[in-house]
UniProtKB/TrEMBL annotation:
Keywords: Protease inhibitor, Serine protease inhibitor. This is Uncharacterized protein. It comes from Carpinus fangiana. The keyword Acyltransferase does not apply. PROSITE patterns: POTATO_INHIBITOR. GO terms for molecular function: serine-type endopeptidase inhibitor activity. InterPro entries: Prot_inh_pot1, Prot_inh_pot1_sf. The lineage of its organism: Eukaryota, Viridiplantae, Streptophyta, Embryophyta, Tracheophyta. Transmembrane segments: none annotated.
Amino acid sequence: MSSQTIGGHRQPLLTNQASSGSCQFAEVADGTTAECAAVCCCCPCGLVNLLYLAIYKVPSTLCWRALRRNSRKKLHWPFHNRRTGKSSWPELVGVNGEAAAATIVRENPKVAGTVIVKEGMMVTMDFRSDRVRVWVDKNETVKQTPQIG
């Protein structure tokens, strides 16, 4: 261990115990370095996250909500409160599918279109007041009562 001479007495350069009530230079430098790293690293990252939220996320979420709300209104707008004409055609069971579709469009002008569906085909479960599905078998004969939905 090296030592230094002060006033004729030799004293060690490094001590094993820190003096009470005072901090060593290394402790102060370590704390300052940690604070600088936090400020230099975390502040820019937080600022980038805030800008991303303000510029991209919030406007895109608001746009998607508005589009979803408008699409729901448009889907049922002409039919949700003024449904007129027939809503089911039990007399068409056993008739050719194409002839049944033409009859449905003729008897209810609010129906935008008919869909001819073969037995066993998968369809969506959504309800639309402007659509009629005509279920036919392999011989193109209507098997179920066509109805709005």
